Amino acid sequence: MTEVNEMKLKEDTELRIGVEEGEAIVELIEGRAEIFGSELEKHKRYTFQKGSRVAIFTYEGATIEVVGSGANSYTSDQTPMVIYLNTHAALEQIRKVAESDPSHRGPRIMLVGPTDVGKSTVCRILCNYSVRMGRSPILVDLDVGQGDISVPGTMGAIFINKMADIMEGFDCSRPLVYNFGATSPSENLPLYDLLVKELAEVINQRCAVNRDSNIGGVIINTCGWVHGDGYQCLVNAAEAFEVESVVVIDHERLYNDLKRDLPSFVKILHQPKSGGTETRSKEMRATSRSERIHKYFYGTPWSRLNPYTFEVNFSDILIAKIGAERLPESCLPFGTKVDDHNTKVVSVRPSSSLVHTVLAISPCAAVSQNVIKDTVLGFVVVNEVNEETQTLTLLSAQQELPSKVLVLTSIKFVDDRNH
Ligand code: ADP
């Protein structure tokens, strides 16, 4: 039987909903409320699928109706929303200075912390609040594990000028995407740092020519890997983007380490995580990655996409791989760094080992070092390889390949049309 619950929320409280089965339909009956910074429209029904986790927060009180027996929901008045609102107010002060004096720039803030502490959610809230003030911030996502902007294994940026859709998130139809090709920076640290620098450079160029972006500022989401080399990646990213503030969510040691290692002009804040964030297991994370790729090709129940499958001949494509075999130091040409092999682009022959592999489409005309630094045109998945006929069957969002250079990733996706 369908369950209908009407809940009255007091001011500064939130209703947390985890959809365990089926779907949950949410409607704002009275008052004002928002989901991660996007305001709900009164009497509009929002549907959340199994696996979703959201919080409906209200500053001034609201009545919410929740329909669906598989929705596990509870109300909490212990939320860090007011802290996040204060962070937003501080960013707004910096924007005002940038607005009145073109020699200043807008805020550059980086969110760091372990996995599942709500970093992406806080980025979404801060972007939404700034859009509600008429700003156009840039959201940078360095978390190659989740791939919120494109598919897992990428880092990128979107230029935001409208609030995130409650169900679909931000409009990612024209993202700036770099292919890292793996879900953890540990798989190729030199490449990760190089791409972070490249992305920072492109963002700086955008801010130099686009005043709205410059004022709106840059909000940066990062990976949850905060120890050892992961920590160094965060320090490098803070430097590359020249951030002036870092918010550490729920990790005192990380806060102290960053205070020690980042320049003193960088403001470092330690903030609590929301009790509503959910800790995901390795398996759940893998499932959510696969769902992300599925969404890239097939869309969502509310905005379906129809991908294509077609065959290409081995001879019609060029496959590039970033990272060559490591040569012993004695064999390296004079002046070459040992690490260079990690960022060397080489050609590989198509073979059956490519089955289920995600490939990035590079705009380059040939396999060259440019493959690394050029933003990608999209992704395809190898559904089948036929060595006899020397053909690959590709799953593609586009009707035909816009370029012949495809870049290997270590990410797999099993295309199941009945999914
Ligand atoms: P991180 O980026 O640190 O890995 P996320 O922002 O992805 O963390 O949050 C983890 C999960 O918790 C997501 O499913 C998100 O929707 C959920 N979540 C975040 N904040 C809340 C909240 N206040 N109530 C309920 N769920 C939340």
UniProtKB/TrEMBL annotation:
Residues 113-299 form the Clp1 P-loop domain. Its main location: nucleus. Residues 8-97 form the Clp1 N-terminal domain. GO terms for biological process: mRNA 3'-end processing; tRNA splicing, via endonucleolytic cleavage and ligation. It comes from the Eukaryota. It is found in: Nucleus. ATP binds at residues 14, 53, 116-121. Keywords: ATP-binding, mRNA processing, Nucleotide-binding, Nucleus. It holds the Pfam family CLP1_N. One of its GO terms (molecular function) is ATP binding. GO terms for cellular component: mRNA cleavage factor complex. Residues 305-415 form the Clp1 C-terminal domain. HAMAP family: Clp1. Belongs to the Clp1 family. Clp1 subfamily. Required for endonucleolytic cleavage during polyadenylation-dependent pre-mRNA 3'-end formation. This is Protein CLP1 homolog. The lineage of its organism: Eukaryota, Metazoa, Ecdysozoa, Nematoda, Chromadorea.
